[in-house]
Write a structure and sequence with these properties.
253 residues; mainly alpha; extended
Length: 253
Protein backbone atom coordinates (compact mmCIF):
# COMPACT_ATOMS: atom_id res chain seq x y z
CA UNK A 1 0.00 0.00 0.00
CA UNK A 2 2.76 2.46 0.91
CA UNK A 3 4.54 1.74 -2.37
CA UNK A 4 1.33 2.58 -4.21
CA UNK A 5 1.02 5.86 -2.31
CA UNK A 6 4.66 6.71 -3.05
CA UNK A 7 4.15 6.02 -6.75
CA UNK A 8 0.98 8.12 -6.73
CA UNK A 9 2.67 11.16 -5.19
CA UNK A 10 6.23 11.10 -6.47
CA UNK A 11 6.18 9.19 -9.77
CA UNK A 12 6.62 11.86 -12.47
CA UNK A 13 6.27 9.43 -15.37
CA UNK A 14 3.85 10.80 -17.96
CA UNK A 15 2.31 7.33 -18.25
CA UNK A 16 1.29 7.39 -14.60
CA UNK A 17 -2.18 8.86 -15.20
CA UNK A 18 -3.22 8.31 -11.56
CA UNK A 19 -0.24 10.35 -10.34
CA UNK A 20 -1.02 13.13 -12.81
CA UNK A 21 -4.65 13.19 -11.69
CA UNK A 22 -3.61 13.32 -8.02
CA UNK A 23 -1.17 16.14 -8.74
CA UNK A 24 -3.89 18.11 -10.54
CA UNK A 25 -6.37 17.52 -7.71
CA UNK A 26 -4.02 18.74 -4.95
CA UNK A 27 -2.85 21.73 -7.01
CA UNK A 28 -6.43 22.73 -7.81
CA UNK A 29 -7.45 22.38 -4.17
CA UNK A 30 -4.54 24.62 -3.11
CA UNK A 31 -5.48 27.32 -5.63
CA UNK A 32 -9.20 27.21 -4.84
CA UNK A 33 -8.54 27.42 -1.10
CA UNK A 34 -6.84 30.80 -1.57
CA UNK A 35 -9.86 32.39 -3.30
CA UNK A 36 -11.66 33.33 -0.01
CA UNK A 37 -8.64 35.45 0.96
CA UNK A 38 -9.46 37.76 -1.96
CA UNK A 39 -12.70 38.95 -0.32
CA UNK A 40 -13.20 41.17 2.72
CA UNK A 41 -16.58 39.69 3.64
CA UNK A 42 -16.99 36.00 4.45
CA UNK A 43 -19.58 34.11 2.41
CA UNK A 44 -21.10 30.80 3.61
CA UNK A 45 -19.80 29.05 0.49
CA UNK A 46 -16.29 29.79 1.68
CA UNK A 47 -16.84 27.39 4.59
CA UNK A 48 -17.63 24.62 2.13
CA UNK A 49 -14.56 25.45 0.05
CA UNK A 50 -12.37 25.56 3.15
CA UNK A 51 -13.64 22.21 4.46
CA UNK A 52 -13.34 20.43 1.10
CA UNK A 53 -9.83 21.69 0.38
CA UNK A 54 -8.73 21.05 3.96
CA UNK A 55 -9.54 17.34 3.65
CA UNK A 56 -7.47 17.07 0.48
CA UNK A 57 -4.46 19.01 1.77
CA UNK A 58 -4.48 17.26 5.14
CA UNK A 59 -4.68 13.87 3.41
CA UNK A 60 -1.73 14.85 1.22
CA UNK A 61 0.26 15.82 4.33
CA UNK A 62 -0.45 12.47 6.01
CA UNK A 63 0.32 10.45 2.89
CA UNK A 64 3.65 12.21 2.41
CA UNK A 65 4.45 11.49 6.05
CA UNK A 66 3.64 7.80 5.55
CA UNK A 67 6.17 7.35 2.74
CA UNK A 68 8.89 9.77 3.82
CA UNK A 69 11.25 6.90 4.64
CA UNK A 70 11.43 6.09 0.91
CA UNK A 71 12.90 9.55 0.18
CA UNK A 72 14.79 10.25 3.39
CA UNK A 73 18.39 9.30 4.11
CA UNK A 74 17.24 8.27 7.56
CA UNK A 75 15.90 4.81 8.24
CA UNK A 76 12.84 3.84 10.20
CA UNK A 77 11.64 5.21 12.57
CA UNK A 78 13.80 8.35 12.32
CA UNK A 79 12.47 9.27 8.89
CA UNK A 80 8.95 9.63 10.32
CA UNK A 81 10.24 11.62 13.29
CA UNK A 82 12.24 14.02 11.10
CA UNK A 83 9.51 14.64 8.51
CA UNK A 84 7.44 17.23 10.50
CA UNK A 85 10.59 19.36 10.78
CA UNK A 86 11.41 19.43 7.06
CA UNK A 87 10.80 22.82 5.36
CA UNK A 88 7.93 21.74 3.10
CA UNK A 89 6.26 19.80 5.93
CA UNK A 90 6.37 22.88 8.16
CA UNK A 91 4.86 25.01 5.39
CA UNK A 92 2.22 22.35 4.71
CA UNK A 93 1.26 22.21 8.37
CA UNK A 94 1.15 25.97 8.88
CA UNK A 95 -1.17 26.48 5.94
CA UNK A 96 -3.78 24.04 7.30
CA UNK A 97 -3.61 24.88 11.02
CA UNK A 98 -6.06 27.84 10.81
CA UNK A 99 -8.63 25.61 9.08
CA UNK A 100 -8.16 22.89 11.70
CA UNK A 101 -9.08 25.39 14.40
CA UNK A 102 -5.69 25.05 16.11
CA UNK A 103 -4.87 28.68 15.33
CA UNK A 104 -7.04 31.78 15.64
CA UNK A 105 -8.67 33.02 12.43
CA UNK A 106 -6.44 36.08 12.58
CA UNK A 107 -3.75 33.70 11.29
CA UNK A 108 -5.75 32.75 8.23
CA UNK A 109 -3.21 34.65 6.15
CA UNK A 110 -1.08 31.51 6.59
CA UNK A 111 -3.39 29.86 4.07
CA UNK A 112 -1.58 31.71 1.31
CA UNK A 113 1.31 29.29 1.86
CA UNK A 114 -0.91 26.68 0.19
CA UNK A 115 0.34 28.01 -3.13
CA UNK A 116 3.55 26.12 -2.33
CA UNK A 117 1.58 22.92 -2.90
CA UNK A 118 1.35 23.94 -6.54
CA UNK A 119 5.06 24.77 -6.65
CA UNK A 120 5.84 21.47 -4.93
CA UNK A 121 4.59 19.62 -8.01
CA UNK A 122 6.35 21.99 -10.40
CA UNK A 123 9.43 20.54 -12.05
CA UNK A 124 11.03 23.96 -12.44
CA UNK A 125 10.50 24.73 -8.76
CA UNK A 126 12.25 21.46 -7.97
CA UNK A 127 15.19 22.60 -10.07
CA UNK A 128 15.40 25.88 -8.16
CA UNK A 129 15.32 24.03 -4.82
CA UNK A 130 18.12 21.72 -5.91
CA UNK A 131 20.20 24.71 -7.05
CA UNK A 132 19.80 26.37 -3.66
CA UNK A 133 20.69 23.12 -1.89
CA UNK A 134 23.82 22.71 -4.01
CA UNK A 135 24.97 26.31 -3.56
CA UNK A 136 23.77 26.80 0.01
CA UNK A 137 27.30 27.14 1.47
CA UNK A 138 28.21 29.90 -0.96
CA UNK A 139 24.87 31.65 -0.55
CA UNK A 140 25.13 31.47 3.23
CA UNK A 141 28.58 33.04 3.02
CA UNK A 142 27.18 35.92 0.97
CA UNK A 143 24.31 36.27 3.44
CA UNK A 144 26.76 36.38 6.34
CA UNK A 145 28.72 39.16 4.60
CA UNK A 146 25.53 41.14 3.93
CA UNK A 147 24.24 40.79 7.50
CA UNK A 148 27.63 41.73 8.91
CA UNK A 149 27.86 44.84 6.76
CA UNK A 150 24.29 45.85 7.63
CA UNK A 151 25.17 45.67 11.33
CA UNK A 152 28.43 47.58 10.94
CA UNK A 153 26.98 50.35 8.75
CA UNK A 154 23.93 50.67 11.04
CA UNK A 155 26.17 50.96 14.08
CA UNK A 156 28.34 53.58 12.36
CA UNK A 157 25.33 55.60 11.29
CA UNK A 158 23.62 55.33 14.69
CA UNK A 159 26.79 56.50 16.42
CA UNK A 160 27.37 59.33 13.96
CA UNK A 161 23.77 60.59 13.79
CA UNK A 162 21.92 59.72 17.01
CA UNK A 163 19.47 62.56 16.43
CA UNK A 164 18.37 61.14 13.05
CA UNK A 165 17.75 57.58 14.24
CA UNK A 166 15.62 57.22 17.35
CA UNK A 167 16.56 53.58 17.92
CA UNK A 168 19.17 51.15 16.68
CA UNK A 169 16.36 49.26 14.92
CA UNK A 170 15.77 52.36 12.76
CA UNK A 171 19.45 52.31 11.82
CA UNK A 172 19.20 48.59 10.93
CA UNK A 173 16.15 49.37 8.80
CA UNK A 174 18.01 52.14 6.98
CA UNK A 175 21.11 49.97 6.46
CA UNK A 176 19.01 47.15 4.98
CA UNK A 177 17.23 49.42 2.51
CA UNK A 178 20.51 51.12 1.60
CA UNK A 179 22.32 47.81 1.04
CA UNK A 180 19.55 46.54 -1.22
CA UNK A 181 19.58 49.93 -3.03
CA UNK A 182 15.85 50.37 -2.32
CA UNK A 183 16.10 53.54 -0.24
CA UNK A 184 12.50 54.44 0.65
CA UNK A 185 13.56 57.91 1.75
CA UNK A 186 11.62 57.94 5.03
CA UNK A 187 14.88 57.75 6.99
CA UNK A 188 18.09 59.21 5.59
CA UNK A 189 21.39 60.68 6.83
CA UNK A 190 21.91 64.44 6.93
CA UNK A 191 25.59 64.80 7.83
CA UNK A 192 28.47 64.55 5.36
CA UNK A 193 29.87 61.46 7.09
CA UNK A 194 26.44 59.84 7.07
CA UNK A 195 26.01 60.55 3.36
CA UNK A 196 29.42 59.00 2.70
CA UNK A 197 28.39 55.86 4.59
CA UNK A 198 25.18 55.78 2.60
CA UNK A 199 27.04 55.97 -0.74
CA UNK A 200 29.42 53.20 0.26
CA UNK A 201 26.48 51.04 1.37
CA UNK A 202 24.72 51.52 -1.97
CA UNK A 203 27.84 50.64 -3.98
CA UNK A 204 28.57 47.64 -1.76
CA UNK A 205 24.94 46.59 -2.02
CA UNK A 206 25.15 46.32 -5.82
CA UNK A 207 28.01 43.83 -5.47
CA UNK A 208 26.29 41.84 -2.72
CA UNK A 209 23.02 41.58 -4.67
CA UNK A 210 24.84 40.62 -7.87
CA UNK A 211 26.78 37.77 -6.24
CA UNK A 212 23.87 35.46 -5.32
CA UNK A 213 22.09 36.27 -8.58
CA UNK A 214 25.11 35.09 -10.58
CA UNK A 215 25.59 32.02 -8.40
CA UNK A 216 21.95 30.97 -8.71
CA UNK A 217 21.89 31.62 -12.46
CA UNK A 218 25.00 29.52 -13.07
CA UNK A 219 23.70 26.71 -10.88
CA UNK A 220 20.31 26.86 -12.57
CA UNK A 221 21.87 26.50 -16.02
CA UNK A 222 23.95 23.54 -14.87
CA UNK A 223 20.88 21.86 -13.42
CA UNK A 224 18.87 22.43 -16.60
CA UNK A 225 21.67 20.97 -18.72
CA UNK A 226 21.86 17.89 -16.49
CA UNK A 227 18.08 17.41 -16.73
CA UNK A 228 18.19 17.75 -20.51
CA UNK A 229 21.01 15.20 -20.61
CA UNK A 230 19.02 12.77 -18.46
CA UNK A 231 15.96 13.18 -20.68
CA UNK A 232 18.05 12.54 -23.80
CA UNK A 233 19.53 9.40 -22.22
CA UNK A 234 16.06 8.13 -21.33
CA UNK A 235 14.86 8.76 -24.88
CA UNK A 236 17.86 6.88 -26.27
CA UNK A 237 17.18 3.96 -23.91
CA UNK A 238 13.56 3.84 -25.00
CA UNK A 239 14.60 3.99 -28.65
CA UNK A 240 17.17 1.22 -28.18
CA UNK A 241 14.58 -0.88 -26.37
CA UNK A 242 12.03 -0.44 -29.16
CA UNK A 243 14.67 -1.24 -31.81
CA UNK A 244 15.65 -4.43 -29.98
CA UNK A 245 12.01 -5.43 -29.67
CA UNK A 246 11.51 -4.91 -33.42
CA UNK A 247 14.63 -6.97 -34.19
CA UNK A 248 13.37 -9.77 -31.94
CA UNK A 249 9.99 -9.78 -33.63
CA UNK A 250 11.67 -9.81 -37.03
CA UNK A 251 13.90 -12.75 -36.15
CA UNK A 252 10.94 -14.73 -34.81
CA UNK A 253 9.00 -14.22 -38.03
Amino acid sequence: MRHTIYSLIFNKDSRNWAGRAYEAMVSMAAVISIIPLMFKTWHPIFDTIDTFTLYILFLDYIMRWMVHDFRSRYGKPWAFIVYPFTPMAIVGLLCILPSLGLLDQTFRILRMFRIFKVLQYSRMFGLVVRVFEREKKTLLSVLFIAVGYIFISALAMFTNEPETFDTFYDAIYWATTALTTVGYGDVYPVSDVGKMISMVSSIFGIAVIALPAGIVTAGFMEEINSVIKEDDEKEEEKKDGSDKAEETEGSET
